[in-house]
Every structure is written in C-alpha cells, then in structure tokens.
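Researcher: Structure prediction, please.
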Amino acid sequence: MKVAIDSCDTLKFERYSDNTLPDLACKSIINLLNKTNIDRNEIDGLLISSCSNENYLSNIVSEMINLNPKISTNVENLCNSGTSAIFLAYSLITTGICNAIIVAGVEKHNSPGNKLVWDITRGDFNLPIHWASLFAKNHFRNFKTTEDDLAMISEKNHNNANKNPNALFYKKKFNFMDIINSKRIVEPLKLLDCCYPCEGSCSLLMISERFAKKSEIPIWIKGISQNNQGASFSNVSYDLSSIISTKIASKDAFKQAKLKPTDIDIAEVHDAFTIFEIMAYEDIGFVEKGKGSTFIKQNAIHFNTRGGLLGCGHPIGATGIDQTNEITIQLQEKSPKLRQKRDCKRGLIHNMAAAGTSSTIIILQK
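Model: Predicted structure follows.
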C-alpha cells in the first residue's frame, strides 16, 4: 500500500518558553487539523517523537486534543526520533493497520537527550561536539577539507534560516568572517559550526492511498530506510571517514524508490555540526568520497533550505519531522515565497543520531 504525507505544521523554535511539553505538541497538532481535509474521526494513530522522560505523553496529548486513536505511543531514538516515528507510521499504514496517523515531534530546551551520558566508551567526552571534532580532523587530514569549507556550510544555512520565520536564528545574520572568528570550542570546530539545542514542536499527517483522494496535494513516500549500528561510539569509530549507517540506509532507500542521487532536487541533511553536511553529501552518494567540500559551491541540489539544524536550532525529537515538513511544503509549492525553490519534484531527508550510530533516509515525490 502506498503512503503519502497530506499536510504538516511547525511552531516557531525558541530557546525556552513556559509551555509544557504536551502544550507544545497540542498547539502544532491543532494547527495541523485545521489544514487537512481528513476528518479528525478518521485519524486512527498518534505517534509522539520526543527524548523527554515524561510518561504516557502520547495518550495525554490524545486526550487534550480529543482524539481516540487505535494506536497512541511515544518514539525515542535520540536525534533520529522524528524520522523513526515516521518510519513506524509508514509501517502501520502499509500493513493496513491504520489509514491516517499524526506524527508529532516535541522537545523542551533541557531535554535529557542533549548529553550522551550512557555511552561509557566516550569517557569524559560525552558531548556530541567531541566526536564531531574527530570526524572533522580526519576529514581535514585525509581530504584536505578546511575551516573555510566548514564556514561556507554555516554561512549558507544561517542565510537560509533568515528566510524561515520558524527558525531559532531568524533575522540573526552571520557572515563568513563572523563564523571564522567565532569562539573555538573543540578543535577545529567553532561556536558557529555547531547547532543550538532549543525547544519546539511540529507535526505531519500521513495517510494511506485510499485516503489520499481527499488530500489537496499528497506527497508520496517513495523510499524509506533506517540503519542502526548499536549505540556506542566504539561501534563506529573504526572508520571516521564515513557514517556507515547513512551509507547503508541511503543505498536501501534509493533501491526501494528505484531512483538515484542525481534524481533528487532538494534535500534536508543532518548538519548538527558543519562537518556532517559535507560527509552527508558523500555518504548519501551526491558526490564521491573526499569531494564533499568541492560540492558546496556547485548548487546542483538545494540543501537545508529551512536553515538546517545550524540555523533552525535542534529540538531533538522534533528535528526529523521538521526536516520532512520542509521537503513536503517545497514539493507542494507551499513554502514561503522567499524560500520556495522552483521545479522540485523529488526530495530527500537525512536524519541521524549519536555519531551516526543510527541514520534514516526518506525519499519523497510529488
């Protein structure tokens, strides 16, 4: 059975607010329900993506918005939570268990997912920037990537965020020299090479082929795959030149979609740190290994048009869903005028977690 995305919604990302986690989720879902032609009584699933420790969150939200779905549950997979929830919804619809599922991502700024304290293989270096710096140093050494290359990624994505009113760094301009001269955090990564933890909520409605007849502009999931390499950095650190989970998930998703990287017009890739956007170019297959830094200037594909994690901020459980929302509205030609890209027929979402120990790839098509 084919699966489509009907509609989506994103609240503005903020550093913090007085909203509770359920409040944030409900606000986005209520907006979503006002955008769709699908009757709320036909919605038979609610999946909440979050790294919070709040129990029974999806059922609490279901009650607050007066839904009684067949399935209501939480999904947690660190930064890969949002696309993991989409993967679960896709599976429930393709098997015929459900016909219409709301997937909502929500996070507060102080999420427990911000630190990797459970991985003892990282020793005292339990912040994500520590392992990101290892990937960056390796890329610098083996492929002649430079700090200027990383700064170009940050400059591009922050410029894109200035076209996105929902972005954390909307109307905050950083030029190339601002980025180069920003505070060095862990060699060679600087402050503006890093995404910023924040809070936010977003949601989307996934529907079966039968329900797609009611949809204004259904966007079809042509390929979806996830690969997991365990949880510990020790499981992936044997090869710092690639994110193996991204390579495997990409290959599977393209095979399922019967497409290749050159068929993609627009993509959202996981840029928690600037080095990871360059590596994503290579590991997804847009360019050969080691050529990621040269690909920045080619403009062959539109990347991270919403601003990426760097420009939007990173509310962990919501990020993968907002990435998917961006590709959806671009393909529907519903993106704000300043950021809408022309003639986009196919898009890709790349979401990953914890040094790339898990990755998801989703390929969408009009």
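Model: The chain is about 35% helix and 20% strand.
Researcher: Thanks, that helps.
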